[in-house]
């Protein structure tokens, strides 16, 4: 069984609120989980202590059991000083994209009615 620590969405439409849960990776995002280990409210200011709440002892327990945190959870744990997150590097992202080619004129417009032979 592969265990992950991830966000589970709650809250109303246009009012997101997330719970940090430990779940089996095969279960749906908002579905069954093993344990709640914190909350995340993105609507709160970034410097607010209410924005991210973590139960660090339980998170450390699950990490020791082999649970894999998602990228966002790794960011939270890095800020809390529990886990070191490696900087990601995508050198392809900085390269300019290739310009799209002009569409070929394969579909020629139909002949005007004046050029068509008259039916007698």
Describe this structure in words.
This protein has 120 residues and is α+β, with helices and mostly antiparallel strands. It has a domain at 3-80: Ribosomal protein S16 (S16 Ribosomal Protein, Chain: A). It is built from two helices and five strands. The chain has helices spanning 56-64, 71-80, and strands spanning 3-10, 17-24, 35-40, 52-54, 68-69. The protein has a five-stranded mixed beta sheet. The chain is elongated. 13% of the residues are buried. The model has no long low-confidence stretch (mean pLDDT 85).
Write the layout of secondary structure elements.
Blueprint: E1 3-10, E2 17-24, E3 35-40, E4 52-54, H1 56-64, E5 68-69, H2 71-80
Parallel strand pairs: 1-5
Antiparallel strand pairs: 1-2, 2-3, 3-4
Task: Provide a concise account of the structure shown.
With 120 residues, the chain is of the alpha+beta class. It has helices spanning 56-64, 71-80; strands at residues 3-10, 17-24, 35-40, 52-54, 68-69.
- Percent of residues in beta strands: 15-25%
Order of helices and strands, N to C?
EEEEHEH
What best-fitting shape do the alpha-carbon axes yield?
elongated
Mean pLDDT: 85
The CA-CA distance between the termini, in Å, is: 80 Å
> Which residue ranges are poorly predicted, with pLDDT under 50 across at least 5 consecutive positions?
none
- Kindly report the spatial arrangement of strands forming the biggest sheet: 4-3-2-1-5
């Amino acid at each position: 069984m592969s265990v992950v620590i991830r966000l589970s969405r709650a809250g109303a439409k246009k009012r997101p609120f997330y719970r940090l849960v430990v779940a089996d990776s095969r279960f749906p995002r908002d579905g069954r989980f093993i344990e709640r280990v914190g909350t995340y409210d993105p609507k709160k200011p970034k410097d607010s202590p209410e924005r991210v709440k973590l139960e660090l002892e339980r998170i450390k327990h699950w990490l020791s059991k082999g649970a894999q945190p998602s990228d966002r959870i790794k960011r939270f744990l890095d800020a809390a000083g529990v886990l070191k997150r490696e900087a990601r590097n995508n050198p392809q992202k900085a390269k300019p994209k290739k310009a799209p080619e002009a569409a070929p004129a394969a579909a020629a417009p139909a002949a005007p009615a004046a050029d068509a032979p008259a039916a007698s």
